Structure formats: C-alpha cells, structure tokens
Structure to design on (150 residues):
C-alpha cells in the first residue's frame, strides 16, 4: 500500500495532496512541529514532532518505505527518501530523481554559500496557480507510478 508523507510545516499544497490521496484511498501523514489543523478524513494522520532542526525530516525518513511518496521542498530529505526507494515530489510538481539528486544537493550548497556571502539576496519566485496545477498533474502521475511499483 502506498502512503503519502507531507513535510507539512511550509507546504503550500496540503489540500491538493489530500484531494488526490482521498480519490485513491491513500493514507496521508502530515508531519510537522506544530500548527496543523486536524482533518476530518480517517485517511489523514497528523504527526507532531518535537521542535528542532530537521525533526520532521528525520521522522519522515525513519518511517517512509519503498513506493511511498514524500511531498517536500527539502532536498536532503528528498535524497533520504529516494535512498529508501520512495518517490519525492516538490510542491511545484517537479520530481526528485536518483539521477538528479546529487546535482540538486550540490546546487543547494552552492546557493547557500552565495547567500551567506551576500552575492544572492533574493529568494525563489512566488508560488503560483500554475505551480499548483502542475503539482496536481504530477502527483496523480506519481501515485499511479507508485501503485505499479508497490
């Protein structure tokens, strides 16, 4: 059975994820260090972890399994999920892959260094309607792939 894990602290597509999960009857675990509203669906489990750096990431990485899906913007968490045979998807619908995760980690470090040096001061572009739509399409395809894999 495929489960969906949401790195929920700053996830802009929680509602979209739950819509797709409910359509497929998939258990969804929303992992956060607090501040998440309860959900009516019996398929949704709210996991509150201790506050601290990477606490939610550690919980997800410890519990996710092969063919499960993680929704996250966190590149190191995505790498840990891929190592366990899970699938990982950004909220904009872009999939993390085995082929691309090494480059994504390296780019993340480079950008962090540039920000610390003050060479880059802006953040990513705002999350928009097109991102939300693309995410819904990609999550549907990812669920279908996970069901075939699992």
């Amino acid at each position: 059975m495929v489960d969906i894990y949401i790195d929920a602290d700053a996830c802009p597509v929680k509602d979209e994820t739950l819509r797709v999960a409910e359509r497929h009857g998939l258990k969804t675990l929303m992992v956060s260090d607090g501040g998440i509203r309860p959900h009516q669906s019996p398929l949704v489990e709210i996991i509150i972890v201790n506050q601290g750096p990477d606490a939610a990431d550690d919980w997800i990485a410890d519990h996710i399994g092969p063919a499960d899906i993680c929704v996250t913007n966190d590149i190191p968490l995505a790498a840990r999920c891929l190592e366990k045979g899970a699938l990982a998807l950004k909220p904009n619908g872009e999939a993390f892959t085995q082929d691309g995760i090494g480059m994504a980690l390296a780019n993340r470090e480079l950008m962090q260094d540039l920000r610390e040096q003050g060479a880059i001061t802006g953040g990513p572009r705002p999350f928009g309607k097109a991102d939300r739509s693309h995410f819904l399409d990609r999550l549907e395809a990812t669920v279908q792939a996970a069901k075939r894999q699992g």
In short: The chain is about 45% helix and 15% strand.
